[in-house]
Design goal:
Blueprint: H1 2-13, H2 21-33, H3 41-54, H4 59-71, H5 75-82, H6 90-102, H7 106-118, H8 128-138, H9 141-153, H10 160-172, H11 177-185, H12 191-203, H13 207-217, H14 226-238, H15 242-254, H16 261-273, H17 277-286, H18 292-304, H19 308-320, H20 327-340, H21 343-356, H22 362-374, H23 378-386, H24 393-405, H25 409-421, H26 428-441, H27 444-458, H28 464-476, H29 480-488, H30 495-507, H31 511-524, H32 529-541, H33 545-558, E1 566-571, E2 574-579, H34 588-604, H35 620-628, H36 631-642, E3 649-653, H37 659-672, E4 676-679, E5 684-688, E6 691-692
Parallel strand pairs: 3-4
Antiparallel strand pairs: 1-2, 1-3, 4-5, 5-6
The structure holds one DNA strand of 10 nucleotides.
Length: about 700
DNA sequence: ATTATATTCA
């Protein structure tokens, strides 16, 4: 061998050197046994040159050159040589199959395998892993089966690496017994064999089997490694088992695996799924090396746990650190824009997404549908939804929920039915969406029907969210007793659900029921601020000022304060917030003047202030003045002042819009000729030309 | 030659 390498070295040191035919022959012969002796692409080219010079027509030498080229993944060079062969020998086929595979050209790789078999050449252990990988990548199960059969006939299923590749392809097809069979047939197994089975079980939902195998592998003298751990961490993430997850984290640190990016991302994800965002951020921060995936993990963790601003901050930081965002980055961050209703930011990201060519990604388009719907652009949402290829249940649900929020119940229902026709089974979220749609449109019968049938038709038992939607449906419609009955059938009704009924008691002025409901709420949730505020308002509305004051007093004694009513509007990328009776906005006086002018025009159009919802013990004139202070009106007035004529005004309010403001905004939309979109805490109102899309029902 | 991590609706 040393002499062969000596020849090679001589050739390489002086490419112009003339080797004898004999030397080249010796060299090639040795290389047939040890192609690894060539250690660089340029050496491979030297070799090729020598072959061309001495034996250009020898299929064996040509094959050797192909083999050497393919070791360096040089597909084009390999192909050039391969095409010169009339009937390629086995080595040429094997090399080209592998070379295609390592270059990700799986279709061609498989085609060459088929050619090889047709030519009568017998494949061996060196090609099966590549071929199986190609089958796995292309999800070509039928060919995979055929290859498996071929492997068994050749007795190759005992071969370690081929066996591992076989396990891998079988786990990709879902959980079945053939995985275990292959695993047990193998005469030798290494950690990859174990890891592949474990990962397969984990991904196919066989969590217990996966964990049992992790315990078993110790018996075979193998310790879990980074592959094992990143395969099983998602299990604890799914089960929200932070104790087990922590245990793994300890093991990771003991074995020094914490520098591995896969492990780090899995840990970040595990902690955030277990609602431990702080831990997840800590793992991210101490992981020095970061990639798009670990950034995505931490960003998604923040967003999923409601830390939208932190998520956005990290997203910006990622861009600053020159980490290129991938499609997952966008689908992770978009919900932050949706929840914060930051339309402009959402639009900017949408532009970025289009520039990256990610707009055909279902995850991203579904998140865009949701973002546009939540930001009031239901038409844009519908347009994007219509363009989604391969819509999944989440895409449909986002659109249905969007319609629900905008009060388009009929559209929501027809989408829901269409989804079923396309063979997509609704899950509990989709049902929540359809019930919400019925609730926002007062469609009692339809809602009740979906609710009653959900268990038998979709196999989903009503959860809190479904009861909440139904309670809301009855409550809004004034069917307070029905709502009370329904909630009472629940095993453990929550304060939130009772509160839906309580707020209906206020609207429908039912003080007796309100007292009953309030006491139910305080039983389960004594600190429920909203309920105390509501109760005090209900008393005040009924003129029972003393009782109202008493509730307020209790609140003060308990040290709880209500969140002030506020509205906000985005103008030129800046969010302007208006809090009830707060005078701090720099244009406060101008806004007041504008509101007075509007008021005059409104009165000319027949507006009479409805002071029935002003819950202060003051005279009517003062009540009228208090209505001016309502935050949504001031936000709208500001919007009109600071945007060009005709621009749609979009305002968000943190609590339900009041009756008087609703009437006022209808008139304002007509007077100033603007479309005004107000989102309160449960839905959208589109005001245009004196009308509102909610049809007076909210 | 074969193995693993992150994403949309509530």
């Amino acid at each position: 061998m040393a002499s062969t390498l000596g020849v090679l070295e001589a050739l390489l040191r002086n490419p112009g050197a003339i080797a004898t035919k004999l030397e080249v022959k010796q060299l090639l012969k040795a290389l047939l046994k040890r192609p690894g002796a060539i250690t660089s692409a340029s050496e491979a080219k030297q070799l090729h040159a020598q072959i061309l010079k001495h034996n250009p027509s020898s299929p064996l030498y040509t094959s050797t050159a192909i083999c050497v080229y393919s070791n360096f993944k040089l597909l084009n060079q390999s192909l050039l040589l391969f095409k010169t062969l009339q009937s390629p020998p086995s080595l040429a086929y094997k090399s080209i199959i592998k070379c295609y595979a390592v270059n990700g050209r799986f279709v061609e790789s498989l085609a060459s395998f088929v050619d090889m078999r047709a030519s009568g050449n017998t494949p061996d252990h060196s090609v099966f892993p590549s071929v199986l990988k190609a089958c796995a990548f292309l999800l070509d199960l039928r060919l995979g089966e055929a290859v498996h059969g071929c492997i068994i006939r050749l007795g190759m299923d005992v071969h370690l690496i081929t066996g591992n590749a076989l396990i891998n392809i079988r786990t990709g097809a879902g959980a079945d017994s053939s995985v275990k069979k292959v695993f047990e047939t193998m005469t030798t197994r290494d950690i990859i064999s174990w890891n592949t089975v474990i990962a397969g079980n984990a991904q196919n939902g066989l969590h217990e089997d996966a964990l049992a195998m992790v315990r078993e592998m110790g018996g075979a003298g193998l310790k879990p490694d980074i592959f094992t751990l990143s395969a099983i961490l998602p299990i604890f993430a799914q089960y929200v088992d932070v104790d087990k997850g922590r245990e793994i984290h300890g093991y990771v640190i003991r074995y020094g695996f914490d520098k591995d990016l896969y492990v780090a991302s899995s840990l970040i994800n595990m902690y955030s799924r277990c609602a431990r965002v702080e831990d997840s951020i800590r793992v991210f921060k101490i992981t020095r090396q970061r990639d798009t995936i670990s950034w995505n993990s931490v960003i998604a963790g923040c967003v999923q746990n409601g830390m939208f601003d932190e998520g956005l901050r990290l997203f910006r930081q990622m861009l600053k650190d020159n980490v290129i965002p991938g499609s997952v980055s966008f689908s992770s961050i978009m919900p932050a824009c949706a929840h914060l209703t930051t339309l402009n930011l959402g639009k900017q990201l949408h532009g970025y997404i289009m520039r990256c060519g990610f707009d055909d990604n279902v995850f991203i388009s579904s998140s865009l549908v949701d973002m546009y719907a939540k930001c009031g652009h239901i038409r844009t949402a519908g347009w994007i939804f219509g363009g989604i290829k391969g819509r999944d249940m989440v895409s449909w649900t986002a659109m249905i929920m969007g319609c629900a929020l905008h009060g388009y119940a009929e559209d929501a229902i027809s989408l829901f039915e269409q989804m079923k026709l396309e063979g997509i089974r609704p899950n509990h979220v989709a049902i929540t969406a359809i019930l919400t749609a019925c609730s926002h449109a007062g469609m009692i019968d339809e809602g009740r029907r979906y609710f009653d049938r959900m268990t038998e038709e979709y196999g989903i038992r009503p959860g809190l969210e479904h009861y909440a939607a139904m309670a809301d449906l009855y409550s809004r419609k004034g069917k307070l007793n029905d709502a009370y009955q329904l909630i009472s059938t629940m095993t453990t009704p929550t304060g939130t659900i009772w509160s839906l009924l309580l707020s209906a008691c206020r609207v429908h002025k039912n003080v007796d029921l309100a007292e009953k409901v309030a006491s139910k709420i305080f039983e389960v949730d004594p600190e429920n601020i909203g309920a105390r505020v509501l109760l005090s308002n209900i008393y005040a509305n009924d003129g029972r000022w003393k009782e109202a004051a008493k509730v307020r007093m209790t609140m003060r004694n308990m040290g709880i304060r209500k969140n002030p009513a506020c509205s906000w509007i985005e103008v030129k990328n800046k969010i302007h917030t208006f809090i009830a009776d707060d005078k701090s906005h720099p244009l406060h006086d101008e806004i007041n003047i504008a509101l007075c002018e509007l008021q005059e025009k409104m009165e000319l159009a027949g507006y009479v202030a409805d002071t029935s919802e002003v819950l202060h013990d003051v005279d009517d004139e003062q009540k009228k003045y208090l209505l001016y202070g309502h935050s949504e009106r001031r936000a709208i007035a500001f919007g009109i002042m600071s945007t060009p004529a005709g621009t749609t005004i979009r305002v968000i309010k943190n609590i339900r819009i009041c009756v008087d403001c609703h009437t006022a905004i209808k008139l304002i939309s007509k007077i100033v000729g603007r479309e005004i979109v107000v989102r309160d805490n449960s839905r959208f109102h589109h005001f245009r030309d004196g009308e509102c899309s909610c049809g007076e029902y909210w």
